[in-house]
Write a structure and sequence with these properties.
The protein contains five helices and no strands.
């Protein structure tokens, strides 16, 4: 990945971490031929995986009536989102811990 590609896709990478709608917006902005960036595609896949996992597990966690479980869930995902967001801000290409590589595999067709 070149510095030009990273700089070109940085805006879309940052947008992707801001809500699920941000992922959709960043995906469509990145699909324009002149704006195609592997850096942005990487972070879009990471962010999409985080948001989908957050909502799927959040539905299950919501059935528990324990503030400890729900607060632990929110802290866990807040740390993952902050990690991914700061990587996008600082132009790093590191996957999110624990599940980032999995997201890259299952969403490999996204952004190509």
């Amino acid at each position: 990945m070149t510095e030009v590609d990273i700089e070109k896709g940085r805006k879309n990478a940052i947008i992707s971490y801001i809500t699920l709608f941000g992922v959709i917006i960043a995906y469509y902005l990145n699909n324009e031929v002149e704006n195609k960036s592997e850096f942005a595609s990487f972070h879009i896949r990471q962010s999409l995986g985080l948001w989908l996992t957050f909502f799927a597990l959040g539905y299950i966690i919501g059935s528990f009536d324990s503030w400890m479980i729900t607060s632990g869930f929110y802290v866990f995902f807040a740390v993952l989102f902050i990690y991914g967001f700061t990587n996008a801000l600082s132009k790093k290409h590191d996957p999110v811990p624990l599940i980032g590589e999995f997201y890259q595999k299952i969403f490999s067709n996204l952004g190509k």
